[in-house]
Amino acid sequence: MADRITTEAPTTEAIRRAEPTARPRLARKPRGILVPLWLGYVFLYLPILIVVVMSFNDSSNLFVWRGFSLRWYPELFANEALMQGLVNTLIVATGATAIATVLGTLLAYGIQHYTRGGLIRAFAIAPAIMPDLLLGIGLLTFFSLITFTVGLHSVIIAHGVFATAFVTAIVLARMANLDPSLEEASRDLGAGPVRTFVRITLPQLAPGIVAGALLAFTLSLDEFVIAFFTSAPTQPTLPIVIYSMVRFGVTPEVNALASILLLVSIVTVIAAQRLTRLTGSTR
Amino acid sequence: MLFLIVFMAVPVGLLAFYTFFKRGRFGGVVFEPTLDNWAKLFEPLYVGVIAQSIGLALVVTLLALLIGYPMAYAIAGLSPKWRTVALIAVVLPFWTNFLIRTYAWILLLNNAGWVNQWLQGLGITDEPISMLYTPQAIVVGLLYMYLPLMVLPLYASLQQLDPSLREAATNLGATPWRAFRTITLPLSVPGALTGSIFVFVPAMSNFVIPELIGGGKTIMIGNLVRDQFFEARDWPFGATLALLLTFLLVLVIVAQAAVSRRLTEGPRRG
């Protein structure tokens, strides 16, 4: 804004001439406007900060600070329930991401090329919008009707469903920006539809697909409600383990776990931000 | 496509189908057609829960709007570089585990928790105030959880706003406050509506926060559905509740779409 004032000010038009007098009033934005923002951040970060600070607490009492200690970190890795939950979660997230990435990409391609109506598009994206509660109990009833035993595989399928919707949405958005003439050129030069898809379409969609896969993976890691309904009690995912711990009494390892997860998500968000900026500038 | 039909359309269809049948004596479903499940929704107990859910979700949405609007407005006024940082800072808590954020509030609001320790330390109260396990705690928890979902669309609509409109208003002698009220505020209504939907929809169906922060004393539709499935083993009624919830939410979304369509088409129609 500031440099626009200097470049536009010397025009002779009457309307423009009014600007220099008006601009300073706008530029001199009251500093007070940032106060609610800072208060908002305090609200958003205070709880998280407390958890991180308490992860270094020497006491096993959750509410009393008794000096700095790292003891909860090794204890976290010794906690079998939490570690098993972590392994389960990673298996589910990997499987669901694989399903979602392949199906989401194909679905987006199919929608873009072979359908006209918005109905199928809406249908494909619906699981992303519908309440997770509905999808969770729907799958639960369905699995029990076909007497499909629940376990990690059922959670993978369930997470695959809603993650597919996200991948589809992202790839569709990216597809809308593609130049169709490249595909036409490829076909004119004698390439079949499969070859055109693999050689021309897919590389162009790659950033969208990677972004979709990343999102699918992170969403699956954190997803609780659907997993709650579709998992077996013997094979809980990490959020479910945490849920039952919070319900029946938390031990301080959870603070350490929370801090590690927080660190992981900060790194992921910043990496994703870098990634989108990179692909955004090269294309 | 087939995958989605099998694992989304069929299960949801099945739920709709189940709502017309009876519950089995030991759970499960007995295939005797009945409308009892839908009639049951009108029992005062359930009407109360539904009304309470809508009420709580509305309060959360309004508070999110009140807090989120100034935040989005402030972010939109930052320089591009700081804007990105500020936005990431809003989104970041959203990417940390949902249950851990819920648990953080237990640490804060417990009778022996930090808020009470600070209040007593500052001499504001002598005895701990019970904050955890109250409806107010649920509101705070839900608000905390979904505030980022309000800030983002609001920011998007404020940022798209053509600054020259505001300048024009100021040039024509409007005070900053008046320019805000007549230009910025009306033009950001679509963003506010989208944000409200984003907050209202998950707030309505959440059952974890009412249970963990609300202590299970304040029951929302989500809790009811969960209980029908896992405790009462009344799947048909649980399905009915879930479909009612979805129906309410679709209604809200359709209303939102209609309102924002009218808003954007309004000027063209003159």
Q: What would you note in describing this structure?
A:
- The complex is a heterodimer of chains A (283) and B (270).
- Chain A is built from 14 helices and no strands.
- Chain A is 77% helix and 0% strand.
- Chain A starts with a helix and ends with a helix.
- In chain A, helix 4 crosses helix 14, helix 6 packs across helix 13 and helix 10 (180-188) packs antiparallel against helix 11.
- In chain B, 44% of the residues are buried.
- Chain B is built from 13 helices and 2 strands; from the N terminus they run H-E-E-H-H-H-H-H-H-H-H-H-H-H-H.
- In chain B, 74% of the residues lie in helices and 3% in strands.
- Chain B starts with a helix and ends with a helix.
- Chain B is globular.
- Chain B has helices spanning 2-18, 36-40, 44-76, 80-91, 98-109, 114-121, 135-160, 163-171, 176-187, 189-205, 208-212, 221-230, 235-269; strands spanning 21-23, 29-33.
- Chain B is mostly helical.
- A two-stranded antiparallel ribbon of chain B has the order 1-2.
- The interface between A and B is large, with 76 and 78 residues.
- Chain A: Keywords: Cell membrane, Membrane, Transmembrane, Transmembrane helix, Transport.
- Chain A: Pfam families: BPD_transp_1.
- Chain A: The chain crosses the membrane at residues 33-56, 90-111, 123-146, 152-173, 205-229, 254-273.
- Chain A: InterPro entries: Bact_Polyamine_Transport, MetI-like, MetI-like_sf.
Which terms would index this structure?
heterodimer; B: 270 residues; mainly alpha; 13 helices; transmembrane (chain B); MetI-like_sf (chain B)
Average residue-wise pLDDT of chain A: 78
Largest sheet of chain A: none
Order of SSEs of chain A, N→C? HHHHHHHHHHHHHH
Biggest interface in this structure? Answer: A-B, 76 and 78 residues
Largest sheet of chain B: 2 strands, antiparallel
Instruction: Return residue spans of chain A where pLDDT drops below 50 for at least 5 consecutive residues.
Output: 1-28
Radius of gyration of chain B in whole Å, from Cα? 23 Å
Helix/strand order of chain B, N-terminal first = HEEHHHHHHHHHHHH
Placed side by side, the strands forming the largest sheet of chain B appear as: 1-2
Overall shape of chain B: it is: globular
What fraction, in percent, of the residue positions of chain A are helical? Answer: over 70%
How many E strands of chain A? 0
- In DSSP terms (H or I, runs of 4 or more residues), the helix count of chain B works out at 13
- Helix count of chain A? 14
Low-confidence segments of chain B:
none
The value of Rg of chain A in angstroms is: 26 Å
Summed over residues and divided by their number, the pLDDT of chain B gives a mean of: 78
Subcellular location (chain A): Cell membrane
Keywords (chain A): Cell membrane, Membrane, Transmembrane, Transmembrane helix, Transport
Pfam family, one (chain A): BPD_transp_1
Protein name (chain A): Putrescine/spermidine ABC transporter permease
